[in-house]
Amino acid sequence: MSTEAVGRLDRGDGVELAWAHLPGTGPTVVFLPGFKSDMAGSKATHLRDWCAANGRAMLRLDYSGHGVSGGAFEDGTIGRWCADARAVIEARVSGPLLLVGSSMGGWIALLLARAMAGRVAGLVGIAAAPDFTETLLWEGLSEPERAQLMQGGFIERPSEYGEKPYRFTRALIDDGRAQCLLGGAIAIGCPVRLLQGQRDPDVPWQTALRIAEQVASEDVGIVLVKDGDHRLSRPQDLALLSRTVAGLLAQDGA
């Protein structure tokens, strides 16, 4: 079994991005975590173990302000974190990619698949949340809350996934609007698989249908997990994830 290498990449401004790379056959599976999540989460480590057992290459990473990477979380935006991911990918991996994105990571995966179309052999979204800063966050705020966010620069909301509240910044909202995808066609031609829980309290399951409708690819599959939540990290959910990744790798002929 291959040994995973770990390291840090200076993105050019003194902020170091943490990564873990497992050698193996390609396409390289790249795991993109969600908002305030990291590469040590259960889905990332499950895929790492599956790739190691099957001789597959994999790259895990933490965006700036996440996990063990440098930088402040409050300085991040969708565009910044997407650029972080691309910097690590380009520094550590050559050849084709299979992008796997969870929640916000699904949005980043879609952005990367569009920007790196020549290298992306497939994409898996797990409760993928494109445009969430606008459709789920901004549109869910009251007028006083919007005023507080715009004038004060941030707003805090309780988190169901940790003790500390989430801090959403005006920069996150402003940049998110520039990164939105669901308003028109998404120029992604690779195979796409979308895994979505129907009891997800954070991302409506209909979002998966919108993504499927908007991407240019004709090879799109959706799996709705009727009793699935947002994390999709139960043993049966993780088994579904590894089967989905295995299916795309087999389809690619690797």
Task: Give the tags.
alpha/beta; two-stranded antiparallel ribbon; Rossmann fold; about 250 residues; about 25% strand; 8 helices
Q: How does this model look, in words?
A:
This protein has one domain (5-130, 187-252): Alpha/Beta hydrolase fold, catalytic domain (Rossmann fold, 3-Layer(aba) Sandwich). The chain contains eight helices and ten strands. It has helices at 42-53, 78-92, 104-115, 132-137, 143-152, 170-179, 206-214, 235-252, and strands at 5-10, 16-22, 25-32, 56-61, 97-102, 120-126, 154-157, 166-169, 192-197, 220-225. The strands form two sheets. Strands 1-2-4-3-5-6-9-10 form an eight-stranded mixed beta sheet, with helices on both faces. The radius of gyration is 17 Å and the shape is globular.
Q: How are the SSEs ordered, and which strands pair?
A:
Layout: E1 5-10, E2 16-22, E3 25-32, H1 42-53, E4 56-61, H2 78-92, E5 97-102, H3 104-115, E6 120-126, H4 132-137, H5 143-152, E7 154-157, E8 166-169, H6 170-179, E9 192-197, H7 206-214, E10 220-225, H8 235-252
Parallel strand pairs: 3-4, 3-5, 5-6, 6-9, 9-10
Antiparallel strand pairs: 1-2, 2-4, 7-8
